[in-house]
Amino acid sequence: MNRLPCSILLLAGGRGQRIGGQDKGLVQWQGQPLIAHALHVARPFTDDLIISCNRNRERYAALADQLVSDGNDDFDGPLAGIRAGLAAARHAHLLVLPCDVPKIDAALIARLLDTAGQHPGRPVMVRQGQQWEPLLCVIPVNQRGVFDNAWANGERSPRNIMLKLNAHACECVDNDPRLVNFNTPDLLD
Questions:
Q1: Is residue 13 part of an annotated ligand binding site?
Q2: Of 8, 21, 115, 176, which has fewest CB within 10 angstroms of its CB?
Q3: Coiled coil where (predicted)?
Q4: Which CATH number fits domain 7-188: 3.90.550.10, 3.20.20.120, 3.40.50.2300, 3.40.50.300?
Q5: What is the mean pLDDT of residues 62-66?
Q6: 58-62, 67-71, 107-111, 169-173: which has the minimum mean pLDDT?
């Protein structure tokens, strides 16, 4: 089946505060860096894999087609990475995945892309019950200006921007194990 052509952005540019300031994408889980798990699942869906990172660029460069960053040392948050990904994307859609969801699977990525293909022009976000997951989404690249304007006006929530753009939900069950966020040391054990 022909899927919606997309660039894929793996977010690995965070400060890693909850894991002692470590670069979360490079923290080991099951013998591999966290980002390797998402990369393995995402790579078959794109010829434009972008990693947003703010440190360890040489290590990430070997994994990606492109690297982007916040442009400063302040760790501006995921919206900064998303904006950089939208600016660099080579396809009309950008699928966004955080590096710390190593249980994500191809079926969910395919469903996100299929849902985006059915709702052209609108962002698609994963939603578990009533909880939106804004860092698991597909964004039409032609909405880049909306994200840039929101940023210029002080908005820092990707969720808020996408809801204003009438985002469509890609529904998942509550507590879907594929969406477990490995962002604390106890979850990594």
A1: yes
A2: 21
A3: none
A4: 3.90.550.10
A5: 95
A6: 67-71
Q: What is the pLDDT averaged over residues 117-140?
A: 95
167 phi, psi to nearest 5 deg = -55, 145
pLDDT at 188: 47
Distance CA 109, CA 136 (A): 9
Annotated domain spans of the chain: 7-188
> Is 65 marked as binding a ligand?
no
Give me 96's structure tokens. Answer: 């966004």
Say whether 32 sits in a helix, a strand or coil: strand
Q: Is 100 annotated as a binding residue?
A: yes
73 is in an annotated binding site: no
Has 48 been labeled as part of a binding site? no
Question: Once rounded to an integer, what is the mean pLDDT over residues 34-63?
Answer: 93
Amino acid, res. 89: A
